[in-house]
Design the sequence.
């Protein structure tokens, strides 16, 4: 069997923190008098904090000091919102798949661009099912650079070709392909169609099905 490990993105794969990111950015945008819609928020999927802010600003001038203050402000709103997260917020099928991976003696890691990823997985109650955590603090270059997933694979002690990256964002699929990983894309083909395998969600997925698909 080829596949020995799985690397999971967080937002959009294991849970849906996108709504909380949206509410945080929206509150900041309202305060700055900048229009910001849910649709615009979709483009920020998997995109790191600073780049998200620059996208939201749409060329609105800002000093470095202001950028820092606004990022901190949005993050404080986000931290307030994620206090509501509980084990009930794990997306359907995700916990079952993590449990199957553990039972089969395979490895699982987190590969999230978020600097708050550890807190979220603790609140979801899935930290014990993850053998390694790579997050927004782990590497310099973020997705679509492959660094984050390479860091995760390294922590698992596995080469990329023995790992499947599970992602919901185009930038994440590109990062995984650039690193030489197998890719499972979750969501519409317009977004994750470059993945080796595309599924709507993890809801009905079984480990055996994935091992056969990538084996
Ligand atoms: P933070 P993922 C990403 O998470 C989110 O999709 C993206 O919207 C967010 O801006 C980014 O994390 C950084 O998050 O501000 O908490 O460091 O999909 O890579 O798990
Ligand atoms: Mg994501």
Sequence:
């Amino acid at each position: 069997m080829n596949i020995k490990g799985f690397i999971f993105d967080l937002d959009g794969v294991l849970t849906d923190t996108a709504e909380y990111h949206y509410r945080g950015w929206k509150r900041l945008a309202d305060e700055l008098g900048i229009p910001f819609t849910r649709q615009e928020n979709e483009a920020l999927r998997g995109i790191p904090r600073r780049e998200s802010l620059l996208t939201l600003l749409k060329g609105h001038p800002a000093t470095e000091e202001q950028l820092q203050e606004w990022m901190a402000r949005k993050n404080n709103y986000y931290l307030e919102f994620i206090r509501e997260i509980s084990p009930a917020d794990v997306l359907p099928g995700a916990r079952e798949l993590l449990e199957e991976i553990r039972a089969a003696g395979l490895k699982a890691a987190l590969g999230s661009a978020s600097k708050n990823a550890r807190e979220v997985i603790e609140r979801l109650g899935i930290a014990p099912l993850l053998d390694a955590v790579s997050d927004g603090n782990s590497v310099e270059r973020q997705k679509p650079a492959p660094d984050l997933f390479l860091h995760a694979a390294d922590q698992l002690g596995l080469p990329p070709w023995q790992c499947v990256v599970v992602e919901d964002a185009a930038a994440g699929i590109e990062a995984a392909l650039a690193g030489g990983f197998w890719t499972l894309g979750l969501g519409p083909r317009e977004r994750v169609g470059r993945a080796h395998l595309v599924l709507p969600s993890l809801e009905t997925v079984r480990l055996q099905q994935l091992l056969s698909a990538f084996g």
